[in-house]
Amino acid sequence: MKITILGCGPSWGMPSLINGFGDADPLEPRNIRTRSSILIEDQGVRILIDTGPDIREQLLRVGTPKIHALCYTHPHYDHMGGAEEFGMLTRERHEILHVYGRQKDILFLKSRMPYIFKAPEEQLIKTHYIRPYHKFQIAHLEILPIPQHHAASGSVGYRIGNFAYCTDVKSIDPEGWQCLKGIKTWILGCVTLEESSRWVHLAEALQWIKNLHPDRTFLTHLGPTMDYKTLKTTLPKGVCPCHDNLVIQV
Fold it and tell me: What is the maximal distance between C-alpha atoms in the chain?
């Protein structure tokens, strides 16, 4: 299974309109970060997790491949704001696209972008509600959604085999931790060095990694205090920062 980090930035992207690169080195190209999203490819099946406002640019960088399914983590703009790109893609390519998410997230998407679910797209975009801790199938891949605490909306982490993707998370319930046991590769959202009420911060993330002990952990959703080279040289063995376009073989 091949994982491409399409974007690993925070909700405001980097550099941001507010404070540019913040504490991160503006001369380090890996500190240029688009909003967080990943592409999963296995045996010809392509699954996209989240469609932030940078998704057009991100998919152009990887050749605009056919996408078979979308999975959403939560309804915040930086994870859902680019969904309308797929209304156009499905119409022009006449390709069926399966969209998975919690019922409240799918309904939110339909209320915000109703035009992508009208004819002719309504015949091509198939929505599916997922339930916490209930596995679902996309082609040959079995996917386990794991509920996470994040702001008011909460979010969903996904486990596929020995790989898991958990971004935009502040805490995980005990049942969720049980579901993550045995993973070997973990992509974990970690926005900041400082404590936050919405996201796990670096010290917490490292403790989680120590407790779960996957073989490899890649930190994503990196904010302006998270300089790439600093993280690369100071993180413990087996933990490294993501950068846009990073490819991970699982």
Answer: 52
Query: Given phi > 0 = left and psi -120 to 50 = alpha, else beta, which region is 23?
Result: alpha
**CATH number of domain containing 103:** 3.60.15.10
Domain limits at 6?
A: 2-249
Q: Which two tokens stand for residue 65?
A: 């491949």
Per-residue pLDDT tens digits of the chain, which is 250 residues long? 999 999 999 999 999 999 999 999 999 999 999 999 999 999 999 999 999 999 999 999 999 889 999 999 999 999 999 999 988 788 777 888 999 999 999 999 999 999 888 866 667 899 999 999 999 999 999 999 999 999 999 999 999 999 999 999 999 999 999 999 999 999 999 999 999 999 999 999 999 999 999 999 999 999 999 999 999 999 999 999 999 999 999 9
CA dihedral 100, 45, 43, 40 (to 10 degrees): -70
18 burial type by CB count under 10 A (0-12 exposed, 13-18 middle, 19+ buried): exposed
Q: Give me the amino acid identity at 26.
A: P
